[in-house]
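INTERNAL AUDIT FORM
Audit reference: QA-55
Scope: verify that the stored structure record matches its stored sequence.
Auditor: D.O.
Record contents follow.
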Amino acid sequence: MTTILVTGGAGFIGSAVIRHLINDTDHQVINVDKLTYAGNLESLTSVSDNSRYRFEHVDICDAKAIQRVLTQHQPDIIMHLAAESHVDRSIDGPGEFIQTNIVGTYNLLEQARTYWTSLEAEKKAGFRFHHISTDEVYGDLEGTDDLFTETTPYAPSSPYSASKASSDHLVRAWNRTFNLPTLVTNCSNNYGPFHFPEKLIPLVILNALAGKPLPVYGKGNQIRDWLYVEDHARALVLVATTGKIAETYNIGGHNEKQNIDVVNTICEILDELVGLKPDLQDNTDKVGRASARQQSPKSYKDLISFVKDRPGHDVRYAIDASKIAKELNWTPQETFDSGIRKTVQWYLDNQDWCQHVQDGSYQQR
């Protein structure tokens, strides 16, 4: 039985990976998470009582604690997802991103190297360190047909993406210099269940249901490739267990959408599934872009509010995921249409989880 240690396992993508590992494999899972604001153990309620799951409340920057966890649990694979990940927060306060994403990754690499060198031959030969990163390290795409490949030069635009680029370089250097068996994946924008509502899709869903403005940066013409988080989780476990050491795999959803189109789609689904509540119409009259023309707003689209664009905002990201498709036979199962509908429905069906995040009670652990 393989033991997989997942850092950041209480986060959005990390919790999806752990749910997949527990529900769909026989692997043992060690969840290492500091439980910052983005770490939510309620996202793991469905698997937390499983005998193959263990939780360690540990900061990856704490060398002694990481050393203890590795010695105690003897993982065969480390999947490193722990990271500060919100661009807006990185602009307001870059320091935490430098500390967690760069220093934390360095510390984890060093502790992993010490642990790996101490292993007996057979276990040492099977060990893997999988670093999970983002397509934002590549910067902005100029041409409308260009795609990020595994060899695209790095050109990060934000403190967040720069810190992730730095961690990618560290991982590759530890492979080249110390022969630590590493793999790297870079993914496109994730969405789906259990997404913390500071990000675009859950923010739009929950703001709409509350009758609040739906903020869209600039004209909403930024293009992202959207990847359903459960598709991503499958891909990550596949890479961690069968990918080729020292290789990089780009993981994308094949779903390029402008942000404004994403917002409009969510509004249309909510119009269909919920309808605009009468008590929200006063709010739409105050904030809606169409309220001057429409005395009786009938769509959540009337809550859309265009706001000043953020500094250094990249216009287009798009992933070429042909390598992972060819070499590991992975392709996404969800289209954007199917995935976004599942996502909206999940938020409608899980209002308790949403309420606990919004009122902060999820942090009362």
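Auditor finding: record pair retrieved intact. The domain at 3-191+226-254+315-336 is CATH 3.40.50.720 (Rossmann fold).
Action required: none
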